[in-house]
Amino acid sequence: YGVKGKPMYINVVRDPIERLVSYYYFLRFGDDYRPGLRRRKQGDKKTFDECVSSGGSDCAPEKLWLQIPFFCGHHSECWNAGSRWALEQAKYNLVNEYLLVGVTEELEDFIMILEAALPRFFKGAADLYRTGSSRGICKG
């Protein structure tokens, strides 16, 4: 696109285990946004731990694969769960293309690192996060 510099990639993802557990219960209990919607696993009272113990498909380790394609790229192989190539490509992209990737469960630490790494853009972000203040944030 005629840009001289390479874009700086920054992202935040959910911890893979926390994401899987959350999705497991979401399928059973839904959320507050559409309380009347019938979920496909609604009524299934089995806990996530019970699912793991019994080898259930809803909690299978393959479900952890969901974040690999996001970092892997657009190649169709990225969507093949268990693909060694896709995993290596995702790791390569993380190391070589991303400045920083944080996890939502450690958001404050991520914001503090952003502030230290890119003060021109994120100066004061940690204080804003801690106070919950939106004062000084550009709205547009």
Automatic annotation (TrEMBL):
<comment type="similarity">
    <text>Belongs to the sulfotransferase 3 family.</text>
</comment>
<dbReference type="InterPro" id="IPR027417">
    <property type="entry name" value="P-loop_NTPase"/>
</dbReference>
<dbReference type="InterPro" id="IPR005331">
    <property type="entry name" value="Sulfotransferase"/>
</dbReference>
<dbReference type="InterPro" id="IPR007734">
    <property type="entry name" value="Heparan_SO4_2-O-STrfase"/>
</dbReference>
<keyword id="KW-1133">Transmembrane helix</keyword>
<keyword id="KW-0333">Golgi apparatus</keyword>
<keyword id="KW-0812">Transmembrane</keyword>
<keyword id="KW-0808">Transferase</keyword>
<keyword id="KW-0735">Signal-anchor</keyword>
<protein>
    <submittedName>
        <fullName>Heparan sulfate 2-O-sulfotransferase 1</fullName>
    </submittedName>
</protein>
<keyword id="KW-0472">Membrane</keyword>
<keyword id="KW-0325">Glycoprotein</keyword>
<dbReference type="Pfam" id="PF03567">
    <property type="entry name" value="Sulfotransfer_2"/>
</dbReference>
